[in-house]
UniProtKB/TrEMBL annotation:
Keywords: Cell membrane, Membrane, Transmembrane, Transmembrane helix. InterPro entries: MgtC-like_C (IPR048640), MgtC/SapB/SrpB/YhiD_fam (IPR003416), MgtC_SapB_SrpB_YhiD_N (IPR049177). One of its GO terms (cellular component) is plasma membrane. Belongs to the MgtC/SapB family. It comes from the Bacteria. It is found in: Cell membrane. This is MgtC/SapB family protein. Residues 150-226 form the MgtC-like C-terminal domain. It comes from Nocardia yunnanensis. Residues 12-133 form the MgtC/SapB/SrpB/YhiD N-terminal domain. The chain crosses the membrane at residues 35-52, 64-81, 93-124.
Length: 237
């Protein structure tokens, strides 16, 4: 194989990886344009190395390429994060795995299959997003279908009251609940409790626990918690 052929395969791997990464970058995911392009480039180079870098009767061109799968597994694990009870980054990790496969195909000279794989990854990450949301079944009966009322509290000192209020609003706006009110009152000398009330179409304790987890990492917050508030009982007139 000539040097130009190797460069063509490398360029194809980088280009197709960049196409996959463009969609991730556009959606502001952790692994974006550069990461996916580098993963595809690395897979392409490893395939070229395994196929043309070793010679002799004991050389096994599939040995190095086979380690790409396990190596990308460690890289994908680094983008999977736990946020309270929620797990984030699974789709990004799977996309990195696919980008490595596309790069390996480009390194093997299978340009058509590599291009088809790129199209498949982009279609899954874009078109199937709407399909997945339409498949999700909303809760229409049972206790989770009732309107949820929450009270969220955080305690801090007087000097950090404004900062904690801003953090509280920022943390709660990441949830699907509507922030109805927020107020502060003194609990003791130099201590302030910030209280927020929220409503939602259904109960989702995981989102509230995720908000607590984020706010509890703030050094100025000494205590933080949430509780459900009984819904007002409506009587017929």
């Amino acid at each position: 194989m000539t040097t130009w052929e190797m460069l063509l395969r490398l360029g194809t791997g980088v280009g197709l990886g960049a196409v996959i990464g463009f969609e991730r970058q556009f959606r502001a995911r952790m692994a974006g344009l550069r990461t996916n392009a580098l993963v595809a480039a690395g897979a392409t180079l490893f395939v070229l190395l395994s196929a043309h870098g070793f010679h002799g009767t004991d050389a096994d061109p599939t040995r190095v390429a086979a380690q790409i799968v396990s190596g990308i597994g460690f890289l994908g694990a680094g983008v999977i994060l736990r946020d309270g009870f929620n797990i984030r980054g699974l789709n990004t990790a799977a996309t990195l795995w696919c980008a490595a496969a596309v790069g390996a195909l480009a390194g093997a000279g299978m340009y058509t299959t590599a291009a088809a794989g790129t199209v498949a990854v982009v279609v899954v990450n874009t078109a199937l997003r709407t399909v997945a949301r339409s498949v999700d079944r909303p809760v229409t009966d049972g206790p989770e279908a009732q309107v949820a009322l929450y009270a969220f509290t955080a305690e801090t000192d007087d000097a950090h009251e404004a900062h904690v209020r801003a953090l509280l609003v920022q943390s709660l706006t990441r949830t699907d609940f509507q922030l109805n009110s927020i107020a502060s009152h003194d609990t003791s000398a130099g201590r302030v409790q910030v209280r927020a009330e929220l409503t939602g179409d259904r109960r989702d304790d995981r989102q509230m626990e995720a908000a607590v987890s984020r706010l509890s990492l703030e050094p100025s917050v000494t205590s933080v918690g949430w509780r459900t508030v009984p819904a007002p009982v409506e009587t017929e007139q």
